[in-house]
């Protein structure tokens, strides 16, 4: 899952980003509305955690523009005010959820995960292909009953390949969905991650390389 945090309080933005990364998400940050507005509309994010009162472009305007663009991105709006009127106003602007500051981080994670499930086509709680089971909520993967110890990136790559349901996923798409904006698009990081993931999955081989296109997993 890829998340954008738009928050002008740098300490809070960085803390939220670090916490979400620990949960296995790819997270970008923007510290003002101008940069956040551009990033939200040019990169495909599952969820935008959006502070309402931002310098530059106001959070309300960013929310409205995301809705107008018809993107699947879901918006979790943050505000210092927890009044009913504020919550209603934010939701009427098109926000999918609303969270007042200060908030419990566990609640933020739960809300982001719930919104992320709505940002993509519906998928079962546990993903299965061949003899592999992947549980996004528990961050667990097993093959033929054997638990696998995967890194966050390996887990993310496997999740995206299973979700593709036999379709080919390019290296560029994996880089966009699993890594964040700091990833160098010219590195071999995706290829190396797929290589180590294949080794951990063991035999019979599960991930197929489609030359010039990317990778896929087929039930066969």
TrEMBL record:
One of its GO terms (biological process) is regulation of DNA-templated transcription. The modification 4-aspartylphosphate is found at residue 51. Residues 124-219 bind DNA. One of its GO terms (cellular component) is cytosol. SUPFAM superfamilies: C-terminal effector domain of the bipartite response regulators, CheY-like. One of its GO terms (molecular function) is phosphorelay response regulator activity. SMART domains: REC (SM00448), Trans_reg_C (SM00862). Residues 2-116 form the Response regulatory domain. InterPro entries: CheY-like_superfamily, OmpR/PhoB-type_DNA-bd, Sig_transdc_resp-reg_C-effctor, Sig_transdc_resp-reg_receiver, WalR-like, WH-like_DNA-bd_sf. PROSITE patterns: OMPR_PHOB (PS51755), RESPONSE_REGULATORY (PS50110). This is DNA-binding response regulator.
């Amino acid at each position: 899952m890829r998340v954008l945090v738009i928050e002008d309080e740098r300490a809070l933005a960085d803390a939220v980003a670090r916490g979400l990364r620990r949960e296995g998400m790819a997270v970008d940050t923007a510290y003002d509305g101008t940069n956040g507005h551009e990033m939200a509309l040019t990169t495909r994010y599952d969820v935008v955690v959006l502070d309402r009162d931002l310098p530059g472009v106001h959070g309300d305007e960013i929310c409205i523009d995301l809705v107008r663009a018809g993107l699947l991105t879901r918006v979790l709006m943050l505000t210092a005010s927890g009044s009913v009127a504020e919550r209603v106003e934010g939701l009427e602007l098109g926000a999918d959820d609303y969270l007042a500051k200060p908030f419990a981080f566990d609640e933020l994670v739960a809300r982001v995960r719930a919104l992320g499930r709505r940002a993509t086509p519906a998928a079962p709680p546990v993903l299965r292909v061949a003899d592999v089971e992947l549980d996004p909520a528990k961050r667990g993967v097993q093959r033929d009953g054997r638990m696998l110890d995967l890194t966050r990136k390996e887990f993310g790559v496997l999740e995206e390949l299973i979700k593709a349901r036999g379709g080919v996923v390019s290296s560029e798409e994996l880089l966009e969905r699993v890594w964040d904006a700091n990833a160098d698009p010219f590195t071999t990081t995706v290829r190396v991650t797929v290589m180590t993931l294949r080794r951990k999955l063991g035999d019979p081989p599960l991930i197929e390389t489609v030359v010039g296109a990317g990778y896929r997993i087929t039930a066969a």
